[in-house]
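Quick one, tokens below:
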């Protein structure tokens, strides 16, 4: 009989040779299977509902009808939906490869991941013994493959699945990232002076013409000037040589009307190339120069015989990446005790995904996340077909939360530093369609957190389960008090709901300003004397955390305020306070600012966050007895609409951006400051309408009022209602956006906090929305406890590394990608984003 020859394997029965009864069942299922075609997405690496893979005990099951990957735990659910009985069971058994001696390991020579010469992501440490089975449901029978007795269609489907790629072309590019440089536009047009100057090929003769520095030298390819590069942070965290003479020379020549943008780093020249930098504002980055050999020959340098004597800029960045564990943030040099179990599962870095890992770990420490995305995970999976699950936020967030917060994946594999899962599907889904988060580049954790909140909010609006949406727990409202100094009258304005408090760091509040100034003077003298490396421990400005928070509510002067009481311009004083406090408060320190040279830089400061924070002094008191309110009606000139600050527009245009884009940036940031407008420019400069006239945008469909008479599609209205919006709001959004449903959805979400105040007819009761959509988060007390924080190592958000520290079970724990351990010395003064929890409802 079949069972007498069968081999039991977990809950499955392996049948080496199928009998006629089993073959009959297999033939009956042929009508529901097909060979995957070019347009079919085959998921054969990971389950769409869990982190099970072919390496899991039961392997991975790929449906022969829709090609979705499933764990054995989710097969019954999928079979109940479609009654499709045939699946390909893929099983991999790891066989460790012999460890290569250090001398044979490939050197990292390229700032890249997943390509030759880049960082090794670990996939090549094992060989695999791979076996395939035909899985038959609901009998849970496995037939070893290949099998001659099986119908030919089975073989064709299996071959098609195995040959198909699990990743789309775009996703594969994300996982194999490389820092590629653009070709400079000046390669053909560069001016090279015939000034009789020739460069000796002997490196010992090179020195900066300004300071005498002999390292980190750059040769200007136009006039042969040799100048020192800018000071750089080394892998040991120290500032190394460099006076910036090369850049200073470029600017001086530019002021004379000479454009000499290209410089090559002496010491990096080899027959294969060299580091070339373009100081031109349009490029202002490392570039490729295809005519470098010709340009060097002009100065007497034969590129083909040169040898490298200094590290390239890519190698310096590699040093930083290879040694990020040294930093205080990562608590290197300490024998940290590994933590494991539910809540202590790490996340694999897929190449520049530490920003995602840190943000997700902090969010998943909250009990409300566990309730919505773990306790209700089964409902989310049951309601989402396998074919839709990879594109469903609730499903993928539930999958990720279950992986991090339950027992299933909490035990480390043999020989591994700790348990971890790989959030590949989650990354692709959240980043889909976003210009930055869809790439494999490093990103800003604060920007990702904001983007993730928008994705989460959209998904939660469709869930009418009566629960308070998680995003509501981060919402707070601020109130602005404006005092007109002409009339001594005041106005109180409630601002939009916010989910993150971004605060400027007041450098003038440093408590050790004298010590910092003295250190900088000593460092400057050492650089000018011999350009030697600064071995003294840097003294960084120490800014009280309270001063940073208070700077948010600091009174600001508005010099040209048009008073509605006097109809004249004059001085007004504005200050901002909290009207409501959230349960969870994210505080983001603006460490990345625009320098005097209009280049982004990171503030190298220490801001020690307290574990207890009292913000009661930041609470708005509202109108007070004796205060006289400013009139509500504003003059016609002001009613015409907001106007961009001309001085801000001029500053942005001076950086080379178009006038229309600069005006849009000022309006989008409510003229709050050049720095905020600059951040908006960097985020939106690739938008198709960035340089469109502001007036044209306002007049276009979806750009302003009007078009109310346009008809709207009932189907589109129903789709927006299904997303949790009221009918009246959906109709208005469609009218404003010319019937484009995607733009209408964006329009609604961008105005989500002001929809109820709009002048629209209310939808009949029961249409759209739900308890969870219209719920208002309760107000909380202004006393907070520190729950976690995210830190960044590196000079900019475009490079470096993120880690996070979270307080769990009264112990601080460091989450460094897949490494999870007890934190011995949490770096409270080096955080970038802090998460505080209120002590309770108000």
């Amino acid at each position: 009989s079949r069972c007498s020859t069968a081999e039991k394997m977990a809950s499955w029965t392996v049948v080496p040779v199928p009998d006629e009864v089993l073959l009959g069942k297999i033939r009956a299922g042929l009508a529901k299977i097909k060979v995957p075609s070019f347009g079919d997405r085959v998921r054969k690496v990971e389950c769409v509902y869990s982190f099970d893979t072919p390496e899991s005990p039961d392997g991975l099951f790929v449906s022969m009808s829709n090609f979705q990957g499933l764990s054995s735990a989710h097969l019954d659910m999928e079979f109940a939906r479609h009654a499709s009985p045939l699946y390909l069971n893929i099983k991999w058994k790891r066989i460790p490869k012999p460890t290569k001696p250090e001398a044979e390991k490939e050197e990292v020579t390229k700032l890249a991941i997943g390509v030759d010469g880049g960082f090794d992501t670990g996939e090549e440490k094992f060989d695999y013994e791979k076996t395939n089975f035909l899985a038959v449901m609901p009998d849970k029978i496995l037939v070893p493959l290949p099998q001659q007795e099986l119908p030919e269609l089975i073989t064709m489907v299996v071959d098609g699945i195995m040959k198909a790629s699990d990743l789309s072309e775009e996703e594969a590019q994300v996982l194999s990232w490389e820092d590629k440089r653009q070709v400079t536009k000046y390669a053909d047009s560069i001016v090279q002076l015939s000034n009789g100057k020739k460069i000796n090929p002997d490196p010992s003769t090179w020195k900066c013409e300004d300071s005498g520095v002999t390292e980190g030298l750059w040769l200007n390819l136009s006039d042969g000037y040799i100048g020192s590069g800018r000071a750089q942070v080394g892998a040991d965290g120290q500032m190394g040589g460099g006076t910036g003479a090369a850049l200073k020379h470029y600017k001086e020549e530019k002021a004379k009307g000479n454009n000499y943008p290209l410089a090559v780093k002496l010491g990096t020249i080899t027959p294969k190339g060299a580091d070339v930098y373009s100081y031109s504002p349009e490029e202002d980055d490392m570039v490729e120069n295809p005519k470098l050999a010709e340009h060097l020959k002009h100065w007497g340098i034969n590129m083909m015989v040169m040898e490298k004597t200094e590290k390239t800029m890519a190698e310096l960045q590699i040093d930083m990446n290879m040694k990020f564990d040294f930093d205080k943030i990562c608590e290197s040099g300490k024998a940290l005790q590994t933590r494991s179990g539910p809540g202590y599962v790490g996340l694999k870095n897929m190449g520049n995904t530490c920003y995602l890992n840190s943000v997700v770990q902090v969010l998943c420490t909250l009990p409300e996340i566990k309730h919505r995305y773990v306790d209700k995970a089964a409902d989310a999976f049951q309601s989402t077909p396998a074919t839709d699950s990879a594109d469903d936020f609730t499903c993928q967030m539930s999958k990720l939360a279950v992986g991090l917060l339950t027992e299933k994946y909490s035990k480390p594999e043999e020989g591994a530093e700790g348990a971890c899962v790989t959030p590949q599907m989650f990354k692709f889904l959240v980043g889909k369609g976003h210009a930055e988060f869809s790439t494999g580049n490093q990103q800003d954790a604060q920007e990702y957190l904001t983007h993730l909140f928008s994705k989460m909010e959209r998904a939660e609006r469709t869930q009418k389960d009566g629960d308070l949406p998680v995003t509501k727990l981060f919402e707070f409202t601020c109130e602005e008090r404006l005092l007109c100094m002409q009339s001594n009258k005041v106005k109180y304005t409630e601002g939009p709901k916010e989910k993150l408090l971004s605060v400027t760091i007041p450098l003038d509040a440093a408590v050790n300003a004298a010590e910092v100034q003295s250190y900088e003077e000593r460092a400057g003298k050492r650089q000018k004397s011999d350009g030697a490396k600064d071995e003294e421990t840097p003294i960084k400005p120490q800014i009280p955390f309270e001063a940073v928070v208070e700077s948010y509510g600091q009174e600001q002067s508005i010099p040209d305020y048009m008073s509605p009481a006097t109809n004249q311009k004059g001085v007004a004083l504005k200050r901002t306070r909290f009207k409501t406090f959230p349960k969870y408060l994210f505080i983001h320190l603006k460490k990345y600012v625009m320098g005097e040279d209009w280049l982004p830089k990171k503030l190298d400061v220490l801001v020690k966050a307290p574990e207890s924070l009292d913000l009661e002094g930041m609470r708005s008191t509202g109108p007070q007895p004796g205060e006289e309110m400013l009139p509500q009606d504003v003059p016609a000139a002001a009613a015409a609409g907001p106007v961009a600050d001309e001085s801000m527009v001029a500053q942005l245009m001076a950086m080379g951006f178009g006038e229309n884009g600069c005006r849009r940036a000022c309006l989008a940031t409510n003229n709050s400051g050049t720095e905020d407008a600059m951040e908006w420019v960097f985020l939106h400069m690739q938008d198709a309408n960035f340089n469109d006239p502001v007036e044209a945008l306002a007049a276009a469909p979806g750009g302003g009022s009007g078009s109310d008479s346009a008809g709207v599609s009932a189907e589109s209205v129903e789709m927006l209602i299904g997303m949790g919006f009221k009918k009246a709001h959906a109709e208005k959004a469609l009218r404003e956006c010319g019937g484009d449903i995607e733009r209408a959805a964006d329009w609604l979400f961008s105005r989500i906090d002001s929809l109820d105040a709009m002048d629209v007819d209310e939808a009949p009761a029961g249409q759209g929305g739900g308890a969870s959509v219209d719920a208002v988060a309760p107000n909380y007390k202004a006393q907070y406890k520190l729950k976690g924080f995210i830190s960044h190592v590196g000079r900019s958000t475009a490079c470096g590394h993120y880690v996070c520290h979270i307080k769990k079970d009264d112990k601080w724990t460091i989450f460094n990608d897949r490494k999870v351990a007890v934190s011995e010395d949490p770096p409270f003064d080096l955080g970038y984003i802090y998460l505080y929890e209120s002590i309770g409802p108000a």
